[in-house]
Amino acid sequence: MSEAREPSAPAGLLLQPLPLTGRWAVLLAASLLLGGALQWMKLPAALMLGPLVAAVLVQRAGGSVKVPRALMAAAQAVIGLLVARSVTPANINGLALHWPVFIAVVGAAVAASILIGWGIGRLRIIPGHTAVWGMLPGAATVMIVLAEAYGADFRLVAFMQYLRVGLVTATASLVALLFAHGEVVRFTAGVFPPIDPSQFLMTLGVALIGGACGLIARIPAGVLLFPFALGAALNLSGFVRIELPPALLIASYAVIGWSIGLHFTRDILAAAARALPQSTGAILLLMAFCGLLSWLLVLSLHVDPLTAYLAASPGGVDAVAIIAASTKVDTPFVLALQCVRMILLLIVGPPLARFVAVRLAHKPFSIEVDTGLRREPKVRVSEYATNQNPANPTLDSPPDLGDLD
Questions:
Q1: First to last CA, the chain
Q2: Three-class secondary structure of residue 361 per DSSP
Q3: Count of helices and strands (H, E) across the chain
Q4: What is the pLDDT of residues 281-296, one digit of tens each?
Q5: All residues at 6 or more sequence positions from 3 whose CB lies less than 8 Å from its CB, including other chains
Q6: Which of the chain's ends, N or C, has fewer CB atoms near its CB within 10 Å?
Q7: pLDDT tens digits, residue range 110-138?
Q8: Which among 1, 377, 72 has a CA at the least distance from the CA of 222?
Q9: In angstroms, rounded to a whole number, what is the distance separating the alpha carbons of residues 55 and 67?
Q10: pTM score, two decimals?
Q11: What's the rounded Cα separation, in Å, for the pair 283 and 265?
């Protein structure tokens, strides 16, 4: 793990002189303080939100660190197993009956995000077609790579994607607080209760195998979704009883919170400063539309409002899964609709965004893009679009996102 310094950060920042271990110590202390305070306030997912806020503050103070990818993958695998533990045969039968509703809800959310991005670009609220890529609700890494290849300001796209995840996480937690009516799941048996060693080892094996499959598949949130699917199947069959000690869950919550918060680097915030009100407004509009979709879920499927809201939230899947697992909702329903969102977005998101981006452009040329998932065919991109990035020309590659969605 190497120290993540920001070359453009100004001198004199409070935490910048500290060595890497000192920065991690400050981040850990701030996370414990803020997480404990939010937990005392009975806020759902407090142990993720506290580290998230701490990471943003530490990053702003010059204490840049980087969460190792292996650690982030392990945390996501644990969250996948946490959700898998709540799957029952009744859940599966219900989900199989409602898949057309899932497709319709997710399709409407994706269409709304494309329309909002197109409108922002058309009205020049955000220059060029940057907003088209920034508004897509998921697959953040793919969207940022494609946006950079199409000449959009990838830093602004990254900021919009990070901001979406942060706003959705904070809002969903507040909504959960309002609707949970005190029914927040807490570690009543303590942080280190007795566990079954054999089942715990088997649980770790499921996490390792599922996480490895997710990494090999190279799909967004695959490190969470594969352990979820494998863990649910083994748990339902009775072959494995998923054993997750509270200490392991707390650590996983913190890692995911850090990963989200540390992405708000000074360079990205500086590039996005002027577009903050516009980006926030657009994301809030998308969230409001998804809130309307959640109400339709309540009316059509008769699920409780909190379950519907979390299920229809536009990402990120790991943060939503943590909030769902922290409250008394239909967690498998929430993750099932989130999985449909990810799959549909990967299929139709890039082609639709490319279609809109080309039509917002003027002078096309050809370019070939490698998203890391599959090689995109040559497409027509605008020369006008290549001039929309006011960024520092030395910043010529998109940031490493990890796996937010």
A1: 23
A2: coil
A3: 17, 2
A4: 999 999 999 999 999 9
A5: 19, 20, 64, 65
A6: N
A7: 999 989 988 888 888 876 678 888 898 87
A8: 72
A9: 11
A10: 0.72
A11: 20
